[in-house]
Design a protein that fits this description.
The chain has 492 residues and is an alpha+beta fold. The protein contains 16 helices and 19 strands. Helix content is 32%, strand content 27%.
Amino acid sequence: MSERLFEERLAKAGKLGERGIDPYGGRWDGAGPISKARAAWDPEREGAQVSVAGRITALRGHGKSAFVDITDWTGRIQAYIQKDRLGDETYSLLKLIDIGDIIGVTGGLHKTRTGEITIFADEMRFLCKSLRPLPEKWHGLKNIELRHRRRYLDLIANPDVMESFFKRVRIIRAIRSRLDSLGFVEVETPMMHPLATGAAARPFSTHHNALDIDLYLRIAPELYLKRLLVGGMERVYEINRNFRNEGISQKHNPEFTMLELYQAYSDYRGMMDVTEGIFAAAAEAVGLPGEIEFAGSTIDMSQPWARRTYRELFEEAAGCRMDDVQAVRAAAEADVEVGAKPHLILVQDIFEALVEPRLINPTFVIDYPTPLCPLTKEKADDPEVSERFELFISGMEVANAYTELNDPVEQRKRFETQMEGADQAGQLDEDFLLALEHGMPPAGGLGIGIDRLVMLLTGNESIREVILFPLLKPSASQEAEPDEVSDETRQE
């Protein structure tokens, strides 16, 4: 079926060419958004002229006239194509037009007897021939794998998907506006690093031929942004692409978007205020109230958000203090593999299993054990704890922040400890340490997962639904087609 329809449409493209019409069109000025055309309807201005362009999503012929539904990224409108208005030659183009083709129409706005706002076409221009039919159901490309692999069809077939990505745009725009209002400046840092630094993650590697050096795709921009603090840029942020050569899940994609920012003379409590402001601005940008629905739960987003210490949450959930014997007992109850893990790694595994899933309403988990925080300043009255928070919503980490460690001697010690037994042992970022030795002001730093934030604010439970082109395993059959119907059944 698919190849027959392809050949039929290809033949129609050839017939258009024979008539001197480019089947792939060209520039056509004057077309405005369909939503604006619909809004221009006014019974006191019957026949007001509008011009639109878009994809044909329905075509109904009635002898010497036809109704055509045209859809663009702002909406749908009906056009009335009449032989007497356009002439025989233009009207005859309907025989060569199919669902999925792109046309432009200019004409007066009217309402039909059924109350449908309609353009009575005075001009119709052919703009692009679609050689393959659209998916079977205009409101339902259902195959999830196909939706992600052929996002272009997903956007055409599922208006809710298009709206989710429009919301993503509005969310990021609101974040930028909020940070600009607070005096932050947006910067760009390298995406190829000589060392895999800034976070504990497995990197992607590459090779630069001209310099004959191995490089790593960025796993985090942190150490470069801190260099800017040293240089005197006191409030900086970057909305960046990070790459981590790790697993894929509903919450993880190897390529993802992060907001990372640093503010001189602040700390992790200042970052809580910044975080709440960013989330409020993002929610307002997509018209969300004080509560949101996500993953089957109603989440209360009203501020200020809860602040709970890591220790109290652990002990509350595990029913024991954070010491070896009792932690091992809690680990067994939590079905956490014990093995020969260092104590605090085991504690963290228990925390992930028992505590994180319970954090449905926004909760700042504060004051982490210092060994888990190699880039964080210790609390002045308790060096075993560091001034760090992670923000959890619906059991998902969406933000991470520190009071930044700016002591170069202590930072070197932390790096050396972290490198012991690691794959890159000995590869300290000496340039970053050199920068610290010149003096970095006390600062707060914050990272927010943009993809997870968008998931929450659009109600999508999979990260693949908020990334236009998520990473996918190559298809066994790249030629597989979505369910289609013949053009005849669409041209009612």
